[in-house]
Amino acid sequence: MDERTGQRGTAGMAHRKRRMRKRKRQRMIRRMVLILILVLVVILVGRVIAQIAGNRKAQTSAKPQKVVEDPPAYDVELLTVNEYSRPGTAIDPVTGIVVHYTANPGTSAMQNRDYFEGLKDSHITHASSHFVVGIEGELVQCIPCREISYASNDRNHDTISIECCIADDTGKFSDATYQTLVHLVAWLVGRYDLRVDDVIRHYDVTGKLCPKYYVEHEDAWEQFKSDVADYIEKNGVEPSE
Predict the structure, then answer these.
(1) Which end of the chain is more exposed for a tag (fewer CB within 10 A), N or C?
(2) Dihedral of the CA atoms 88, 92, 95, 98 (nearest 10)?
(3) What is the tens place of the pLDDT at every residue in 177-224?
């Protein structure tokens, strides 16, 4: 073997050794990356498990919301079953309460109830509500709570609707109307195992300016929900097991 052949052989061996060292480094890097990924996955899974456990603990330890057992006094003046205001369709499990205003200043609860009743003959539109609260605080039930009303569009199927009479174009509820509404909503929240945040405006369903004053004055709406919560806390009782 001449000198050049020996040099080529030596160079080849050195090249193979470099490739082997390179491959070894690459395998080590891959192992380190894999270990790092596994560590991160374990940490992430641990955090998720801890969060779930914390949420369950909070739910378990949370104090049950009180329940208002008695509704405000109300007259039951049910509408005739008809396709325009009382279809007689069974309601789904109730998940919310929707507050409306009548938009016809000066009318009473019974006048609005009678308007709904008259739709079976006039066929003007489809409209109704479960309850109507009058300017003097009077309360009329138009539709059983086990049936839907025609009031809240896409939420008719799972909400209880309440129309509130108004004294003027501002749409602000009178004090008597307001107090009856607070009591009624507080009772319904307990009856259907809801939370105060499940009480919404017609506006929150469709964007309609209803109830007008409480859409234009967001602070007044938040105060209303706060008043409902306070009423429940003050007048409610701990739910029975």
Answers:
(1) C
(2) -20
(3) 999 999 999 999 999 999 999 999 999 999 999 999 999 999 999 999
Claim: this prediction has a pTM higher than 0.85:
no
**Confidence check: pLDDT of 22 > 80:** no
Average pLDDT over residues 57-63: 51
Q: Which of 82, 75, 68 is nearest to 147 (CA)?
A: 82
Of 114, 167, 163, the closest CA to residue 136 belongs to 167
Q: List all residues 6 or more positions away from 138 whose beta carbon is below 8 Å from its beta carbon.
A: 75, 108, 109, 110, 180
Dihedral sign, CA of 199, 201, 204, 206? positive
Distance of alpha carbon 19 from the chain centroid: 64
* Cα gap 80→162, rounded to integer Å: 18
State residue 10's pLDDT score.
Answer: 63
Given a contact cutoff of 8 angstroms between Cβ atoms, the answer to whether 69 and 186 are in contact is: no
pLDDT at 60 over 50: no
Q: Give CA–CA dist 171/104, Å, rounded.
A: 9
SS3 annotation, the chain: CCHHHHHHHHHHHHHHHHHHHHHHHHHHHHHHHHHHHHHHHHHHHHHHHHHHHHHHHHHHHCCCCCECCCCCCCEECCCCCECCCECCCECCCCCEEEEEECCCCCCCHHHHHHHHHHHHHHCCCCCCCCEEECCCCCEEECCCCCECCCCCHHHHHHEEEEEECCCCCCCCCCHHHHHHHHHHHHHHHHHCCCCHHHEEEHHHHHCCCCCHHHHHCHHHHHHHHHHHHHHHHHHCECCCC
